[in-house]
User: Fold this.
Amino acid sequence: QKEVEQDPGPLSVPEGAIVSLNCTYSNSAFQYFMWYRQYSRKGPELLMYTYSSGNKEDGRFTAQVDKSSKYISLFIRDSQPSDSATYLCATNLLSGGYNKLIFGAGTRLAVHP
Amino acid sequence: ETGVTQTPRHLVMGMTNKKSLKCEQHLGHNAMYWYKQSAKKPLELMFVYSLEERVENNSVPSRFSPECPNSSHLFLHLHTLQPEDSALYLCASSQGRTGVNEQFFGPGTRLTVL
Assistant:
């Protein structure tokens, strides 16, 4: 079983739609849950993160963690063509004295006008 | 720009060639990473350097050899690669060992092995 599972998509939505991106994870020791966004020909960049369970909102983006079901979600409201990218969920694990990130495979999102 | 640069951006090499990838971070971070990104697969952590000491070598074949001469520079030396090594190689850096450990990524080197 992979430590972090993510449907690679692709996901195609019209502009203005609400987008839901999801991941599941296997290790209850994970504490931070992150979403990275990767545009074509660029490296991933941190979009937002949450610590433990709960919601976090940043503009049109909401990150949600449900530790009881080991489920991570990212919601995008009023999606824009500029949101077209690959979204990677990630979590961290303290290992060997340093903080190791574990990534999902990434979901490719296309928002069309 | 994230403050992490990688060269070259594209590299095509034969299986018998020797080449090197270079990464430089301008953020004053104390940890640097090499990842391999293949289509539809999670980022694979290859190597981690913390305070210029290698702290992780994630079962990577010996045909990949990292080098970290100082806290700002990281190299990945390549020799006798296989076609399945074709992928995007990403360098990242971060500061600190605890907390969220935000990693800043470079744009990657797209490697093709013929």
